[in-house]
Amino acid sequence: MLSLLAVEIPYWGQSLLRVLGGLVAVLLPAGTIVYLFLFKMMSFMQSRLGPMEAGPYGSLQLVAEVGKWLQKEDIIPDNADKKIFKIAPIVVLVSTFLLVAVVPFGPDAWFTNFETGVFYALAVSSISVLGILMAGWASANKYSLLGGLRAAGQLIAYELPMVLAVVGVVIQAGTMNLQQIVVAQNSGAIFGFDFLGNPYILTQFVGFVVFMIAVQAELTQTPFDMPIAESELVSGYMTEYSGFRFLIFFISEFATAGVFTMIAATLFLGGWGVPFAWFGWSGIDDVSNWMNLVGPVILITKMLLLTFIVMWVRFSYPRFREDQLQRFAWKVLIPVSLVNIMVTAVFKVVM
Amino acid sequence: MTMLDDKLGDRQRLSYIAAQAADARLNVELETEGMTLNIGPQHPATHGTLRIIARLDGEQVVWAEPSAGYMHRGYEKLTEVRTYPQVTTLINRIDWLGSFANEVPFILAAEKLMGVEAPPRAQWIRTILFELSRIANVSLFLGDLGVQMGAVTPVFLAFRDREYVLNLIESATGGRFHPNFDRIGGLKDDLPAGWVQETKQVMKKLRNFCDEIETLLFGNEIFQSRMRGIGVIPREVALQYGLSGANLRASGVDWDLRRDQESPLAWKHADWKVFTHPDGDSFARSWIRLQETREATKIVDQLLDGMPAGPVMAKVPKIIKVPEGEAWVSTENPLGEMGYYVVSRGDLGPFRVKIRSASFNNISIVPWVLRGVYVPDIITILASLYFILGDIDR
């Protein structure tokens, strides 16, 4: 029995709550990111207003766009491998939903509480590569194929720095459970000074930077957007998709952005929590029940902060070339994160 | 090969070796299966309908060829059935981003045949509008350069500031895109009141835009790594392929028709500089264009200060008949050397007009320069060579 806000909930209720919560946790941030950053922030950076007609300040623009896409014809090319072509976008979206399963939103508000949550998250995030490769191959289009192959090469290259960047956090926290990593950050102290807790963005700053660069690459946002590269490959692996299936790709792009930055916020910014010293809590058991409601808000705020950085980079940088990107991953990011692991391990043993 | 002499830098030599390797792969027929990629005619990076047939090995280009002509409109033939004043309407549409600059060489050729000289004020206004259309043209290039590499913001800045220039052209000529303002013997009208002050303010804005682009784009490390050492064209090759304009100057050839050629237009009255760059790569070509935009704003400023008074139209008959003869006039247009060879048989219209447009010659180097580069580099090289489809396919 799960006790949420002192209410006893039966098992079927919990399951229903989890499914609904999962939908909300994936789709709500995705919509917010699209509206706030893709529509509005991008426009303001480019000295224009962006959508202003649908709803106040264009806030219903996304609804209008979804309506538009749903009306469009679902075109499947004649030469396409039809089954694979149809499954591919769903595979990409499913990986996003699997990813959100381990993110803790509050002391009791989580979908599942894996002991090896970090490991699971990093493993599941690679599934989207499969979907992209399927889409690229099944489209029977040379641009799609090039885009799919680029995506595969890029996502695999950036998986490694991402894992290595997280290893530093895992060493410092001494656990792979995301909930315990959050608790370790908020109840921790830097040299006995516990007013800020110990958010790992301070002590693992190198790891944070490497992780965010890898996230940028995993999300295929500029400067790492060669798989889509609209000026070279038209739309990369999405070229042949239209209507509903394109919509799924579109949603999953921004939903994944949301989930990845949620995980980054959990690992480096203290997740759902505030420093426990503020309220005199000493551990997870002391945390009062209302954090189950405030926690998600705090997490989403931190998520939006990190997404802001991701999008800011996206709108201001040109993109790398394929070989430059690989060189950057293997010659810069991986050595840096290895050194980071070594330094972290030495400090952990010494202190 | 004589190109590999000691004067070349490391970058040029490396790019040359990559090209040689591509040649070798094509000739030896190694056991790899290639792929032919049609870039265009409908592709976001070709600004229209240019088609590049590229033979790829993985992502490396082994062989590439441009295939032009999807938008051929037969202007050379059409001019034969138009009268002289009507021709300017057509040739406005050749390089549609710098329209006014297309009219000038043709009108100058017709004036040369008729022995008419436009009054000095008309020549000065022509030069100013010529430089304004250069600014309108090249500022869009500078914004587009970012888009080709995925940086979406510069193009909006470019459109914002180009709008000021288009407004100026509109208030002077009545047309934003296709002014059709040049007449044999002068101009259609004088400048409107207040135009000079307004232009000076806009030129200040454009100089700010150039600074903005220089820091936002040209100072960016990723931009530099994408552009430097890519698509290197050595001096000799550039001359052999008949490149002109910024593409030639970027290869180190100090050649600018505005300065090097006797012309009735007013460039000689302004104090300005011709930029060259020794590298010959994509970065050099873009950098030259950026500097030229800034230099063009200075030319406009200086010409506005010293503009002579007087009429803008010489005495020409109502019905223009050009005496028999042949004339060739070319000018340094935004895209490079543009010239008209006009043959007249004494009729109302020309007997034959040969149009030498810059982009057509400039893209002839595409097969040479694309050997051995990667697919993303195709786009940056094409962007930096800077062609306008209408200028290729007349």
What structural class do the secondary elements of chain B suggest?
mainly alpha
Beta fraction of chain A: under 5%
Main interface by residue count: A-B, 28 and 30 residues
- Taken in chain order, the helices and strands of chain B follow as HEEEHHHHHEEHHHHHHEEEHHHH
Largest sheet of chain B: 3 strands, antiparallel
How many runs of DSSP E, i.e. beta strands of chain B?
Answer: 8
The proportion of residues in beta strands of chain B is 5-15%
What fold name goes in the CATH topology slot of chain B?
A: Cytochrome-c3 Hydrogenase, chain B
Total of domains of chain A: 1
| Percent of residues in helices of chain B | 40-55%
The order of strands across the largest sheet of chain B is: 1-2-3
Q: What gap, in angstroms, lies between the N and C termini of chain A? A: 40 Å
Output mean pLDDT of chain B.
85
CATH homologous superfamily caption of chain B: Cytochrome-c3 Hydrogenase, chain B
Report the span from N to C terminus of chain B: 35 Å
The tally of helices of chain B reads 16
CA radius of gyration of chain A is: 21 Å
Helical content of chain A stands at: 55-70%
